[in-house]
Amino acid sequence: MTENKKDRRAVKARRFVLEKEERAVKMTTLCYLEQDGNYLMLYRNKKQNDINQGKWIGVGGHLEGTESPEECLKREVKEETGITLTSYRFRGIVTFVPGPDQVEYMCVYTADGFEGELTDCDEGELKWVKKEEVMNLNLWEGDRMFLPLLMEDGPFFSMKLVYDQDKLVYAALDGRQL
Prior knowledge:
ten-stranded mixed sheet; globular; alpha+beta; about 180 residues
Protein backbone atom coordinates (compact mmCIF):
# COMPACT_ATOMS: atom_id res chain seq x y z
CA MET A 1 0.00 0.00 0.00
CA THR A 2 1.34 3.40 -0.90
CA GLU A 3 1.94 6.10 1.67
CA ASN A 4 -0.75 8.23 0.01
CA LYS A 5 -3.38 5.48 0.48
CA LYS A 6 -2.31 4.99 4.09
CA ASP A 7 -2.63 8.72 4.71
CA ARG A 8 -6.12 8.83 3.15
CA ARG A 9 -7.25 5.87 5.25
CA ALA A 10 -5.86 7.48 8.39
CA VAL A 11 -7.70 10.72 7.61
CA LYS A 12 -10.95 8.79 6.99
CA ALA A 13 -10.52 6.90 10.27
CA ARG A 14 -9.94 10.13 12.21
CA ARG A 15 -12.96 11.76 10.52
CA PHE A 16 -15.09 8.72 11.46
CA VAL A 17 -14.00 8.94 15.10
CA LEU A 18 -14.70 12.69 15.22
CA GLU A 19 -18.16 12.19 13.68
CA LYS A 20 -18.93 9.51 16.27
CA GLU A 21 -17.77 11.79 19.09
CA GLU A 22 -20.03 14.58 17.81
CA ARG A 23 -23.00 12.20 17.88
CA ALA A 24 -22.05 10.73 21.25
CA VAL A 25 -24.91 10.21 23.65
CA LYS A 26 -24.91 12.75 26.45
CA MET A 27 -26.26 11.97 29.89
CA THR A 28 -27.00 14.61 32.48
CA THR A 29 -28.70 15.05 35.82
CA LEU A 30 -31.27 17.67 36.75
CA CYS A 31 -32.33 18.18 40.35
CA TYR A 32 -35.06 20.22 41.99
CA LEU A 33 -34.20 20.78 45.64
CA GLU A 34 -37.30 21.24 47.79
CA GLN A 35 -37.61 23.25 51.01
CA ASP A 36 -40.65 24.80 52.69
CA GLY A 37 -42.82 24.64 49.56
CA ASN A 38 -40.05 26.07 47.35
CA TYR A 39 -37.80 24.72 44.61
CA LEU A 40 -34.22 25.91 44.28
CA MET A 41 -34.05 27.29 40.74
CA LEU A 42 -31.05 28.39 38.70
CA TYR A 43 -31.37 31.35 36.34
CA ARG A 44 -28.77 30.71 33.65
CA ASN A 45 -27.12 34.03 32.81
CA LYS A 46 -23.35 33.68 33.29
CA LYS A 47 -22.00 31.20 30.73
CA GLN A 48 -21.12 31.94 27.12
CA ASN A 49 -22.88 29.88 24.39
CA ASP A 50 -25.25 28.34 26.94
CA ILE A 51 -28.22 26.40 25.53
CA ASN A 52 -30.05 27.35 28.75
CA GLN A 53 -29.21 31.08 28.54
CA GLY A 54 -32.00 33.19 30.03
CA LYS A 55 -33.95 30.19 31.30
CA TRP A 56 -34.72 28.96 34.82
CA ILE A 57 -33.81 25.32 35.42
CA GLY A 58 -32.97 22.96 38.25
CA VAL A 59 -29.34 22.29 39.12
CA GLY A 60 -27.24 19.55 37.58
CA GLY A 61 -24.93 18.79 34.72
CA HIS A 62 -23.09 16.26 32.59
CA LEU A 63 -21.77 12.93 33.82
CA GLU A 64 -17.98 12.77 33.88
CA GLY A 65 -15.80 9.74 33.28
CA THR A 66 -17.32 6.62 34.81
CA GLU A 67 -19.77 8.43 37.12
CA SER A 68 -23.17 6.98 37.83
CA PRO A 69 -26.12 9.38 37.61
CA GLU A 70 -26.24 9.51 41.42
CA GLU A 71 -22.54 10.35 41.69
CA CYS A 72 -22.99 13.07 39.06
CA LEU A 73 -26.05 14.41 40.86
CA LYS A 74 -24.25 14.77 44.18
CA ARG A 75 -21.14 16.30 42.58
CA GLU A 76 -23.05 18.79 40.42
CA VAL A 77 -25.35 19.91 43.25
CA LYS A 78 -22.31 20.44 45.49
CA GLU A 79 -20.39 22.34 42.76
CA GLU A 80 -23.30 24.57 41.77
CA THR A 81 -24.84 25.24 45.19
CA GLY A 82 -22.37 24.32 47.96
CA ILE A 83 -25.05 21.97 49.32
CA THR A 84 -24.50 18.27 50.11
CA LEU A 85 -27.50 16.06 49.34
CA THR A 86 -28.64 13.64 52.05
CA SER A 87 -32.03 12.55 50.60
CA TYR A 88 -33.08 12.45 46.94
CA ARG A 89 -35.31 10.49 44.55
CA PHE A 90 -34.88 9.53 40.89
CA ARG A 91 -38.18 10.73 39.41
CA GLY A 92 -37.89 10.29 35.67
CA ILE A 93 -35.85 10.40 32.52
CA VAL A 94 -36.19 12.98 29.78
CA THR A 95 -34.94 12.35 26.26
CA PHE A 96 -34.04 15.91 25.25
CA VAL A 97 -33.54 16.45 21.51
CA PRO A 98 -32.40 20.07 21.00
CA GLY A 99 -31.71 19.62 17.27
CA PRO A 100 -30.97 17.15 14.48
CA ASP A 101 -28.54 14.37 15.45
CA GLN A 102 -28.40 15.67 19.04
CA VAL A 103 -29.73 13.84 22.07
CA GLU A 104 -29.28 14.17 25.79
CA TYR A 105 -30.73 11.85 28.40
CA MET A 106 -31.58 13.81 31.54
CA CYS A 107 -32.02 11.92 34.80
CA VAL A 108 -34.51 14.03 36.77
CA TYR A 109 -34.39 14.06 40.57
CA THR A 110 -35.98 15.82 43.48
CA ALA A 111 -34.17 16.25 46.80
CA ASP A 112 -35.69 17.02 50.17
CA GLY A 113 -32.68 16.45 52.40
CA PHE A 114 -29.43 18.38 52.30
CA GLU A 115 -26.92 20.16 54.47
CA GLY A 116 -24.56 23.07 54.09
CA GLU A 117 -24.85 26.70 53.12
CA LEU A 118 -25.95 27.93 49.72
CA THR A 119 -23.06 29.50 47.79
CA ASP A 120 -22.86 31.59 44.63
CA CYS A 121 -23.04 29.66 41.37
CA ASP A 122 -20.73 30.42 38.45
CA GLU A 123 -23.45 29.40 35.95
CA GLY A 124 -26.18 31.76 37.10
CA GLU A 125 -28.27 33.01 39.98
CA LEU A 126 -29.76 30.59 42.51
CA LYS A 127 -33.12 31.45 44.03
CA TRP A 128 -35.70 29.66 46.17
CA VAL A 129 -39.01 29.98 44.30
CA LYS A 130 -42.45 29.00 45.62
CA LYS A 131 -43.64 25.91 43.73
CA GLU A 132 -46.85 27.67 42.70
CA GLU A 133 -44.77 30.46 41.11
CA VAL A 134 -42.26 28.27 39.22
CA MET A 135 -44.52 28.01 36.15
CA ASN A 136 -44.44 31.83 35.84
CA LEU A 137 -40.67 31.76 35.19
CA ASN A 138 -39.00 31.64 31.78
CA LEU A 139 -38.75 27.83 31.49
CA TRP A 140 -38.17 25.44 28.65
CA GLU A 141 -41.60 24.57 27.21
CA GLY A 142 -41.01 20.88 27.96
CA ASP A 143 -40.13 21.61 31.60
CA ARG A 144 -43.70 22.92 31.93
CA MET A 145 -44.81 19.38 31.06
CA PHE A 146 -42.74 17.41 33.56
CA LEU A 147 -42.60 19.85 36.49
CA PRO A 148 -46.27 19.16 37.39
CA LEU A 149 -45.39 15.45 37.59
CA LEU A 150 -42.76 16.33 40.19
CA MET A 151 -45.00 18.74 42.08
CA GLU A 152 -47.89 16.25 42.20
CA ASP A 153 -45.56 13.44 43.33
CA GLY A 154 -46.45 11.43 40.23
CA PRO A 155 -44.93 8.04 39.38
CA PHE A 156 -41.60 7.55 37.62
CA PHE A 157 -41.89 8.85 34.05
CA SER A 158 -40.16 8.79 30.69
CA MET A 159 -40.62 11.88 28.55
CA LYS A 160 -39.30 12.76 25.11
CA LEU A 161 -38.99 16.41 24.14
CA VAL A 162 -37.95 17.41 20.60
CA TYR A 163 -37.12 21.01 19.80
CA ASP A 164 -36.51 23.06 16.68
CA GLN A 165 -34.42 25.93 18.07
CA ASP A 166 -36.34 27.00 21.21
CA LYS A 167 -39.71 25.68 19.96
CA LEU A 168 -41.06 22.36 21.23
CA VAL A 169 -42.21 20.37 18.19
CA TYR A 170 -42.89 16.95 19.75
CA ALA A 171 -43.56 15.64 23.22
CA ALA A 172 -44.35 12.16 24.52
CA LEU A 173 -44.97 10.85 28.01
CA ASP A 174 -44.34 7.16 28.67
CA GLY A 175 -44.36 6.48 24.92
CA ARG A 176 -47.60 8.34 24.17
CA GLN A 177 -47.54 11.53 22.15
CA LEU A 178 -48.90 14.53 24.03
